[in-house]
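User: Good morning. I'm curious how BES would be positioned relative to this chain. Could you predict the structure with it bound?
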Amino acid sequence: MNIKIRTAQLNKVKADAVITGIFAKEKKLTGELAALDNSLNGAISGLIKKGELKGKASEITVIHSLGKISASKVLVVGLGKKKELTKDDIRGTVAEATRLLKRKSAKKVAVGLLRTDETGISLLDAAQMITEGALLGNYSFLQHKTKKDANGNIDDLVILSDKKKSIAPLEDGQRRGEVIAKATNLARDMGNEPANFMTPTIMAETAQKVAKENNLEFTLLEKEQMAELGMGGLLAVSQGSCQPPKFIILNYKGGNTDKIDLALVGKGVTFDSGGISIKPSHKMEEMKGDMAGGASVLAAMGAIASLKPKINIMALVPATENLPSGCALKPGDVITGINGKTVEIISTDAEGRLILADALGYAVKMGARRIVDIATLTGSCQVALGNICTGVFANNQRLAEKVLAAGKEAGERSWQMPMFDDYKEQNKSDVADIQNVGGRYAGSITAAQFLGEFVGNVPWVHMDIAGTSSADVNKQQFPKGATGVPVGTLVNLALSMGN
Ligand code: BES
Ligand code: ZN
Ligand code: ZN
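Assistant: Good morning! Here's the predicted structure, ligand included:
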């Protein structure tokens, strides 16, 4: 989708459809809206009078212009109460409107929705939200459809500016929105790819491409190097698969020291069958998305590199399949992680924590000063929080607050969970130092505590995206399938740390 900022009027702009908005209880239309209403012979004010158009949040009304203006359709979106309008509302509403217009095969769409003088939302923020909403709402995954035009896509979006001098801040917002939304859509593409098209090797190639396009340093560790480094967890999980594991490293240097200010670690299980502790077959296909954390990290790194915050970031993605075979890891086996801790395997389906342990230990070894990991780690987190928010677990409250704030800004909700030391008891093993399952209760927390065994004293946040990385239905900017969460959070976190 091509996005442009133009000074044109709603009733004159050449487009297939225009999107505009009204507030709740807006009785008298003014300015551009009044002009548009006039051109439409009072169609909008008529609907308001009849009570059909209330301006309630998430209300979308389609008016056919029947040749009265250049655009054949006018979408009037409800913006809710003027005082309560948030940036999230704009992003979500524009995404819904975009999805609707896409279905109706609109190719060129104009948005006249700023009204920033009335809402207190800045021009930059408004343009960023419109851009994100449009790009995220226009998303579809057609990679494996032989008829690609089945759903259609909007090709051009024009954001209408009333004044010439608004163009500069609008373009700044547009640029930031484009970078974040495109990265989110890349993470979605990776998550939606079938596992036979997103093997650890292909994931590494994708990372290399991101690195090349954004001037990032790319390093790939192979099995031999993993063995040298003592990555017993990653090697153990991968041993049942014919696909070789890959340990992907991207480096972004925006700071003026040699320190790694932040390590981003993402789970890259390209297919999780459960291994010998095999999962039930119902919905097992969804486990192609078990690399969503890794995808979000790789995609976010590309966005970060183009927004250039003044901070150094290292991204680590341990990538592997988790399959049963004659060579596979077995329940009862004991393995040794990168920091020398021994782990008794209770379930081979608790594989994410095994590969993350090695990546976290590697980040510590490399001297990372803060670590944030992202993983589709536990069904238990999904049971606790549903698909509404990401679980946040931390050993450091300051870093936790930063992650929570970055998520809020991105419209990607997250919620902090407790990390009392008592939970660690559940991970004790009779045979090894720890075991990889902590029992039935508080499963997302015991999983987080397991990871905590590998970060030492480094400030660390773990994000469990088992519930939020994919969706069952289209809702606001989130499509059915891979959502790309938490790319926006990670980008905002980097920006907040490096400005
Ligand atoms: N990849 C799964 C977690 C998951 C579940 C992600 C649902 C997305 C949606 C993870 O590897 C797993 O299987 N975890 C087990 C852990 C258990 C064996 C302790 C789980 O949550 O059941
Ligand atoms: Zn698993
Ligand atoms: Zn998994």
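The chain is about 35% helix and 20% strand. The CA atoms of residues 394 and 472 lie 28 Å apart.
Let me know if you'd like a different ligand tried.
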